[in-house]
Specification:
InterPro entries: RtcB (IPR001233), RtcB-like_sf (IPR036025). With about 525 residues, this protein is of the alpha+beta class. It is about 25% helix and about 25% strand. It folds into 2 domains: about 80 residues, Ubiquitin-like (UB roll), CATH 3.10.20; about 325 residues, Alpha-Beta Complex (tRNA-splicing ligase RtcB), CATH 3.90.1860.10.
Length: about 525
DNA sequence: ATGTAC
């Protein structure tokens, strides 16, 4: 018996007969009892011995968790199932007897999954917080959950949340917009060309962005030549190069302030694109959530297929952002030779989910080793599910990303954040190596529609108030209200939460000059 | 979020 083990308190449990549950007895399990059922000092043996002595059962052979019906078989089950105040039902071979209460809680759920919150207490939404806790404590295999400062309620699962799991994959925690992300592209425009009233001219130039790009053959070639992937099928490839709805946009920005050496330069004009995998990703989610299915065991054929499709949706989403950028730059810089898309630096990728070791190993490179540290233990395989959050490590290399955008709602600044990995955040683990990927809703869509429609008139081009604001191209009437800045949390407050937590440094900001949402091109734009 | 479900 190790000294450390003997110091830990025993676990109090209750054992009862599965067949006659009024026959019960308390049992204290020493902390050094083994969860491995084949060990000579296993909890299983202690439980069986106690059952024979106190409950007078001749041949105990199976054990269930009362109220859940989960059978304890392997070491993992014993590890998870045995905790203070649990009631174990001892069976002589018969199946579990009793109702399964709390059917939403998976037998492999982790009721002690730790949750970290990055939002300040004042900004926390009760409903979203409940969703965060319920999800963390009822889905199987979760080992770490994070509420980002943009945490807000989703239909079933929260948005602005990160969930780390082992052995299980949960497609709904990633959502339908697989691979949704942001990228900055350099333009050749000078700030003088987009400042003040010139923003209107720039906005007017942005046409031909709606609808399919060129021909099916051209789209196929784009996906194959540029991205080395065959398409997702014409049903979905038809929308490659389109922005989409919701929080997707493209925005022309001036870099107002930025620290030197992080990839963006002060005064330059950039294009920030946020979009995802459109109908393709959503079709994948649909396929793997038939009949309410939420969780896939990692070694199942289904999980392996999902991961493959997930990766290809991520690549498709990246190709989509690049094509959106190409379409915008064609309007803004006509006559320029082809842009080497994807090779434009300051290119930040956000992939919703990534396989990793947990704890993740933060790689070091010669020039960054003073601010990062390697995790000493290699960890075991884990899956990071992100929704409304971006990774702080490059998925390929595990090197810290130098900068990430934190866009506000349209017209508000985009912060330039440098992810941080201080020991106070367990080197980035506490925030699950992720940062909020936007300001997040503070007002439901319905509420925004009802309260803000008084304030805004729907028009094709929203003029900035004052000379330095943003021209907004938004020809879908409902979106004008729904996506209004007032419906969102303040981006500075969200950024301040990330900074206060130690997850990021604010290294600069961009001023949005033209924010493009959508245009109604059927009637020529008005 | 979505070439959407009732």
């Amino acid at each position: 018996m190790s000294r450390q083990a003997s110091r830990r308190p025993p676990t109090r449990i209750t054992i009862a007969l599965n067949a006659r549950q009024t026959q019960r007895a308390p049992l204290l399990l020493p902390a050094n009892a083994s969860t491995d059922p084949s060990s000579p000092t296993s909890i299983r043996k202690l439980v069986f011995k106690a059952a024979q002595a106190k409950l007078r059962i001749g041949k105990p052979s199976r054990v269930f968790v009362a109220g859940f019906g989960a059978e304890l078989v392997g070491e993992e089950d014993w590890e998870r199932g045995v905790r203070n105040d649990v009631s174990l039902l001892i069976s002589a071979g018969e199946d579990y007897i009793g109702v399964i209460r709390d059917a939403g809680v998976h037998p492999k759920a982790n009721p002690t999954c730790p949750i970290h919150n990055l939002a300040s207490a004042a900004a926390l939404d009760e409903h979203a917080l409940t969703q965060l806790r319920t999800t963390a404590h009822s889905l199987p295999g979760l080992v770490h959950a994070v509420g980002q400062p943009n945490l807000h309620p989703g239909t079933k699962f929260p948005i602005g949340a990160v969930f780390v799991s082992q052995r299980w994959i949960h497609p709904p925690l990633i959502g339908g917009d697989i691979g949704c992300g942001m990228a900055w592209y350099r333009t050749r425009l000078s700030r003088g060309q987009v400042e003040g009233d010139r923003g209107r001219k720039v906005a007017e130039k942005l046409r031909g962005m709606e609808g399919a790009w060129r021909t099916a053959e051209a789209r196929e070639r784009w996906l194959e030549d540029e991205w080395g992937m065959c398409g997702a099928g014409e049903e979905w490839d038809g929308s490659v190069g389109t922005i989409g709805a919701g929080n997707h946009f493209a925005e022309i920005q001036v870099v107002e302030e930025v620290e030197e050496g992080c990839g963006l330069a002060e005064g330059e004009v950039v294009l920030l694109v946020r979009s995802g995998s459109r109908g393709y990703g959503s079709s994948i989610l649909k396929k793997y959530t038939a009949e309410g299915q939420v969780s896939l065991k990692e070694d199942s054929a289904e999980a392996k297929e999902y991961l493959k499709e997930h990766d290809s949706a991520c690549r498709w989403a990246k190709a989509n952002r690049n094509l959106i950028a190409l379409r915008f730059l064609s309007c803004l810089e006509p006559g320029e030779p082809a842009w080497s898309l994807g090779k434009k630096d300051a290119h930040v990728e956000d992939i919703h989910d990534a396989r990793t070791k947990w704890p993740p190993v933060v790689a070091t490179s010669e020039d960054t080793n003073e601010r990062t540290a390697s995790s000493p233990s290699p960890g075991i395989d884990a899956y990071i599910h992100r929704k409304g959050a971006a990774p702080t490590l490059s998925p390929g290399t595990c090197l810290p990303l130098s900068i990430l955008p934190l866009p506000g709602s349209r017209g508000t600044p985009t912060l330039i954040l440098a992810p941080q990995f201080p020991s106070s955040t367990s080197r980035g683990l506490d925030n699950a190596v992720s940062l909020a990927h936007g300001a997040g809703r503070s007002m439901s869509r319905a509420k925004a529609l009802s309260t803000l429609s008084q304030k805004y008139q729907a028009s094709s081009l929203l003029e900035p108030r004052g000379g330095k604001g943003t021209w907004v191209v938004c020809e879908a009437k409902d979106l004008v209200f729904e996506k209004a800045a007032e419906a969102y949390k303040d981006v500075e407050a969200v950024g301040a939460n990330l900074v206060a937590f130690g997850a990021a440094r604010r290294v600069g900001w961009c001023r949005a000059r033209v924010s493009y949402k959508c245009r109604d091109e059927r009637g020529g734009g008005r």
